[in-house]
Amino acid sequence: MSFKSGFVAIVGRPNVGKSTFMNYVLGEKVTIISPKPQTTRNRIQGIYTTPNEQVIFIDTPGIHKPKHELGQFMNNQALTTLKEVDLILLLVDGTEAFGTGDQFVAKLLQDVTVPCYLVINKTDIIKNKERLYETVKKFTDLKTFTEVFYIAAINGDNVSNLLTSIIGNLEEGPQYFPSDQITDHPEVFIISEIIREKVLILTRQEVPHSVAVIIDEMKEDDKGLMNIHATIYVERSSQKKIIIGKNGALIKEIGTQARKEIVMLLGQKIFLELWIKVEDDWRTKKSHLRKMGYYIEN
Questions:
Q1: All domains of the chain, ordered by start, with CATH?
Q2: pTM of the model
Q3: What is the pLDDT of residues 202-241, one digit of tens each?
Q4: Contact at 8 Å (CB) between 52 and 126?
């Protein structure tokens, strides 16, 4: 039997379930999940491999109207991906009515020539079926889709059928990555994202998008203990106080939750030390974005 492979972009508005979908397909967590919009900031490749095929899924940042340099970077990451893939999944939150943001994303896809699937997510909690059908019609009026699928990424409902169809649309190709590799990002990136996820989940609305995490040092000692030192950057002193929490309770909880997940990732004991620093308006400054690990052109 011939081997098939290809690259599949997952695009859509913020918070429609792109990361949840990719993590479910891979059976492991390679990208962070949060109820806060715009959680994903970089293109993250998840690699699905069987003896007969390899699908490289690219989880892109949610396409939105940017308010700062970071937002523009996130949009560019998503839009650039459309030129580099074999198939596109436009993921849509089926519980939401069709809006101007959906129209914006659908129009971006009008000139794309690669096959494109419309994937309606969150079908497990959809209550207004009539509005759902109206939403699907508005999307299909703007763009011709190869297939339309209805899924619930949180529990995997109909995901296997979607995956079968994706593989059916791929051509013969090489195996790009080793069979046991599930992401192209190094462990240090995943660890920084785990820490950022805990901040997103445990803090208030005004903090999350002002947060970046840098791993300053990651070194194993002679006793097999992995020492990890990380800095959490925020834009305001008030945000620093929120993350620290009363008597340091919140930063301690962030560390505790992150530590458990990092231990599972690395398979060894760790020592995790977290620092918090204020970098005023870092999201608006290209030099600061580069420092935080985002590739920004001059």
A1: 4-168 (3.40.50.300), 187-291 (3.30.300.20)
A2: 0.63
A3: 886 656 567 888 888 888 888 889 899 999 988 888 889 9
A4: no
